[in-house]
Amino acid sequence: MLADYQPLETFDELVDWPDASGDRPARRAARALAEHLSAIGPDELAIRQDLAAHSIAASGISFTVYSEGVGIDRAWPFDIVPRVIEGTEWDRIEAGLIQRLTALNRFIGDVYGARSCIADGVVPAELIEGSKGYRPECQGMEPPAGVWAHVCGSDLVRGADGEMYVLEDNLRVPSGASYLLTNRLVTKRVFAELFANQSIRPVDAYPDRLLRILASAAPAAASAATHPNVVLLTPGIYNSAYFEHSFLARQMGIALVEGRDLFVEDGLVYAYTIDGPERVDVIYRRVDDLFLDPSVFRPDSVLGCPGLMAAWRAGNVTIANAPGTGVADDKAVYAFAPDLIRYYLGQEPILANVPTWWCGRPDQKAEVLARLPELVVKPTGESGGYGIVIGPRATATELAACAEAIEADPTGWVAQETILLSTVPTWCDGELAPRHVDLRPFTLQGRDSYVTCGGLTRVARQAGSLVVNSSQGGGSKDTWVVDLVRPEGPLVAGLNEAVSAAGAGGPEVGAAGGGRP
Predict the structure, then answer these.
(1) At residue 120, what are phi and psi to the nearest 5 degrees?
(2) How far apart are CA 63 and CA 201, in angstroms?
(3) 75 — phi, psi (to 5°)?
(4) Could you tell me which of 348, 367, 347 has the C-alpha nearest to residue 357?
(5) Which domain holds residue 269?
(6) 236 in Cβ contact with 246 (< 8 Å)
(7) For position 286, which CATH number holds?
(8) pLDDT value at position 429?
């Protein structure tokens, strides 16, 4: 099949650039996958794609899209051909993500504390005061261990130069981890033989690590210090990410609650249970700030719990991510992230930003307006791909409207260089075709840090499209972080030696799990 695969003139995650003979050989970490695809052929791949689709439908793996105000539940769009990343490259990405979230947590604490970043001229005051994610109600708050954002879903893109860039940071209620996990479950069924014969790092530790991070963030005076009570707060069944909420709560073994299931008494948060009220120590919230507490934010909200903010400010409950983290989620703050890393950590950024201009600065606004047809322009307060104008593909009318919007509200817009995203072979209409992808790994931070081994690869389904969001027609792939040489600690070495001595056949012990010992 790969003999007929025609990659675009950009970085392809499966095949390398042309060699001296003009061929495009498979990349080192992807050779086993490439050989397997060629061996099974298109008919077998089509059968396995159908099996994957049936497995997803039968498992109820779904997401919701909104069209004309109506929510439509759809099966999760999944492509069978995985994306492969070499383990040594991932080690660097992992370190860069932890570095970035550490600096952003320091920044959030500074915003709601001393504001030294403003006094020292690192960021302008209007950047914070004008942010849609800034919550003055959080001023003076200090969460446990100084961690505001316990979960971050960073969007990464690889350019034609082969470099991986951070496209944006998502710290409010980042979604997609459940699909990362379910993608792996489905892929292991349809490509079981590949997991048995190479070292693919596992992703199934995520729910356990998330629960450990959340439990470690419990208030010092938690009702049950050794076993804090953690709950997941969901807006309810009509939310587009409800599948994820129920999936993660089930995987972590914690209660899934709505606002009506909680109440505050004497500054403490309780959940109604069949055994009576139960103290809640940590709330993993998937409800936006403005709906958390009707006594503080939107009085018409029925999704939160009255008194929740007072209990949080009193240190009687931990909310993860904390209210107010959206100030670092802002796309304008993203432009300053490299400076924040240098300022708070005294380090050079491991992962680079896509070159970005904030229109709140007159000189940068002028450059953006002059180069509008070349740049990607984004509203700072939106997410999910909404409001983006891709200059090279926009009409004259769309560019004119974008220029007017920037002039009307300069602080509300950023612009970025157009990055030609890398591609991955994708099963389209009976053949493999290149489609652009991005990547959302998840970084957890509490008293320690953890990064998923890979992430959610989102793929544009239309030829040439750069829009990968599932809400706008994108799909997804499993992401394999492959170790070319399996790390072998004393335990694994001993097990392998024992198996060899016993004369057992098959792959080495630990190979099916595909992880580091």
Answers:
(1) -90, 5
(2) 26
(3) -65, 145
(4) 367
(5) 220-316
(6) no
(7) 3.40.50.11290
(8) 85
**Structure-derived torsion over alpha carbons of residues 16, 19, 24, 29, reported in degrees to the nearest 10:** -40
Q: Do 403 and 416 meet the contact criterion of CB atoms below 8 Å apart?
A: no
- Helix ranges, 147-294 (H): 177-190, 192-197, 206-216, 242-252
- Structural domains counted in the chain: 1
Are 84 and 482 spatial neighbours (Cβ–Cβ below 8 Å)? yes
Whether residue 136 contacts residue 324, with contact meaning beta carbons closer than 8 Å, is answered with no
Q: What are phi and psi of 457, to 5 degrees?
A: -85, 120
Cα 17 versus chain centre, distance: 28
Reference 18, options 5, 35, 32; nearest CA is 5
In a domain, 355, yes or no: no
Residue with tokens 């109600």: 137
Residue 311 lies in a domain: yes
- 3-class DSSP assignment, residue 200: strand
pLDDT of residue 357: 93
The pTM is what?
0.88
Q: Of how many residues is the chain composed?
A: 517
What's the rounded Cα separation, in Å, for the pair 428 and 434? 9
Mean pLDDT of the chain: 87
**Beta partners for residue 375, in sequence order:** 417
User: How much is the pLDDT for 75?
Assistant: 72
Contact 474, 468 (CB under 8 A): yes
Confirm if 468 and 459 have CB atoms less than 8 A apart. Answer: yes
| Residue 453 covered by a domain | no
pLDDT for 3 equals 79
User: What average pLDDT values come out for the chain (517 residues) when binned by 10 residues?
Assistant: 84 90 89 92 92 84 59 76 96 97 97 96 90 93 93 95 94 91 92 90 96 93 73 93 94 97 96 95 96 96 96 96 93 93 97 93 94 92 76 92 93 91 92 94 94 94 78 82 68 38 34 33
Give the pLDDT score at 73: 65
Q: How do beta strands 230-233 and 255-257 pair?
A: parallel
pLDDT at 506: 35
Angular region, 60: left φ>0, alpha ψ -120 to 50, beta rest:
left
Q: Tell me the one-letter amino acid at 82.
A: P
Instruction: Report yes or no on 112 lying in a domain.
Output: no
